Amino acid sequence: MTTSTPVIIGEAALTIEDVCRVAGGRAPVALSQAPSFRARVTKGAAFLDRLLEEDGRIYGVTTGYGDSCTVDIPADLVEELPLHLTRFHGCGLGAHLSAELARAVLVTRLASLAAGYSGVRWEILERLVLFLNEDIVPLIPAEGSVGASGDLTPLSYVAALLIGERNALWKGRQVPAADIHAALGMEPLHLRPKEGLAIMNGTAVMTALMCEAFKRADYLARLAARLTALTTVAIAGNGFHFDSRLFEAKPHPGQGQIASWIRSDLASGEPPRNPARLQDRYSIRCAPHVIGVLQDSLPWMRQFLETELNSANDNPIIDGEGEHVLHGGHFYGGHVAFVADSLKNCVANLADLLDRQMALLVDTKFNHGLPANLSGATGARAAINHGFKAVQIGASAWTAEALKLTMPASVFSRSTECHNQDKVSMGTIAARDCLRVLQLTEQVTAAQLLASVQGAALRQTMTPEEKILGGDLKQFLEEVRSRYTLLEEDRPLEEELRQFTALIQEAHWPLYEETK
């Protein structure tokens, strides 16, 4: 684990970036040392203890769960109830979340418990912090949540890790949770009444996944702007489509920001202006309008996600200060689901935009003098070389798959659990779809990145006397070319596409300072 500045739980509200730093192993976690924070957390547990002593009737503590809330639990079995909750939800399927996403889940659940409305002991928070800092994460199947009553099934794997059951990842190795506790010389926790419900009955999985999705989408918007500038250079397009006066007439802030970034890239050289072609095709001319929808949506998406991240989102809510037990539906993931469904729509539109830009680059009818399929082969060898022909087919396939996944998941509510959970959010399915759309779009982006670099390099050889690149755009092209050899003879590009997709996911290239 890195020794960088820790993310402190219990002080300032967590941000999406905090979650991503912890998830990526770039920051440890610590609990606030403020006495008021610890008192707020522990008051709820103390209040629950007093209610139990007074024979208080509390959902999920002295009753069964969900539709079984009418079943009263005998006093001598109350202590066993949380254990049964964790076990009967151990039925997840599908691929397991990556270690990075599992860390995001742990810190997201920790943030909710730290709000002080869940009635858990301080020791629960301490153990989650220990797991994060020791790189111990539950092995969480991705499938099995309808997003209300929270992410019950996937979060049961967090609870199972705490009690020493099932398997976990420890520094990248799959190990039984019981063996991890033994190796560290500590006892698994015995969950007290309400603690199983507090850990499992919330939106931590969908929220964690969407923190990762938000970070990657934010970077894609910037990279799509840069690739639009590079493609404009490559096809000798009209750089004045991004004139500031145009965007003063239709002043969506995010759209204007995208145009400004493209303009700043083109201004570093000589903005192409072809008097014989006043208007480029829509995938160039309307790029700020397409990317701008995402850019203008990111602020409200952040507000939705960070409010959820810093909320108490289980049930019932335990008000230790005022000594109330409040039964509600804060486990419902509707806000997160709406962000996921909206974000995947915006991101898939980027895939479609970049796919269309690539189609212009490879086609001699539209690329204004570049060789067919961007092949760098010359002379007689040009006849047998096919350049980016198959890559463009692949990009089109990835785009089609991304577009197919844009149907909203949140409208497909299913009544479950004897019609107690009769309206659910589908937030986790929406979040998983969103991450898949991002993966596909990042693949399209990698393909268009290589194609636009190839195209710009070929354009430079055609007009060597003109300064068509300068400043940040030139530096970007040179950095990419240090990892990518121009395609002069056909070669398999799979490994290079995988490499550049990974670099995109890591936000490898700094793009556009805020001062620009």
Helix content: 40-55%
State the order of secondary-structure elements, H for helix, E for strand.
EHEHHEHHEEHEEHHHHHHHEEHHHHH
**What is the spatial order of strands in the main beta sheet?**
4-6-7
The description of the largest β-sheet is: 3 strands, antiparallel
* Content-based structural category: mainly alpha
Overall pLDDT metric: 93
Rg (C-alpha, Å): 26 Å
CATH architecture of the largest domain: Up-down Bundle
Estimated share of beta-strand residues: 5-15%
Q: Quickly count the helices.
A: 18
Question: CATH fold name of the largest domain, please?
Answer: Fumarase C, Chain A, domain 2
The 3D shape can be described as: elongated
CA-to-CA gap between the ends?
35 Å
Count all strands and give the number. Answer: 9
Please specify the SSE layout and strand pairing.
Elements: E1 7-9, H1 16-23, E2 29-31, H2 35-53, H3 81-88, E3 93-96, H4 99-113, H5 122-133, E4 136-138, E5 141-143, H6 152-162, E6 167-170, E7 173-176, H7 177-183, H8 195-200, H9 204-234, H10 244-248, H11 253-267, H12 282-285, H13 287-309, E8 317-319, E9 324-326, H14 334-362, H15 389-404, H16 427-462, H17 471-481, H18 494-505
Parallel strand pairs: 1-2
Antiparallel strand pairs: 3-5, 4-6, 6-7, 8-9
Helix pairs in contact: 1-4, 1-9, 4-5, 4-9, 9-11, 9-13, 9-14, 9-16, 11-13, 13-14, 14-15, 14-16, 15-16, 16-18
Report on this structure.
It is a single chain. The chain has 516 residues and is mainly alpha-helical. The chain folds into two domains: 7-202, Orthogonal Bundle (Fumarase C, Chain B, domain 1), CATH 1.10.275.10; 209-313 and 334-505, Fumarase/aspartase (Central domain) (Fumarase C, Chain A, domain 2), CATH 1.20.200.10. It has helices spanning 16-23, 35-53, 81-88, 99-113, 122-133, 152-162, 177-183, 195-200, 204-234, 244-248, 253-267, 282-285, 287-309, 334-362, 389-404, 427-462, 471-481, 494-505, and strands spanning 7-9, 29-31, 93-96, 136-138, 141-143, 167-170, 173-176, 317-319, 324-326. The strands form four sheets. A three-stranded antiparallel sheet has the order 4-6-7. It is elongated and about 90 Å long. The longest helix is centred in the last third of the chain and has 36 residues, at 427-462. Strand 1 (7-9), helix 1 and strand 2 (29-31) form a beta-alpha-beta unit.
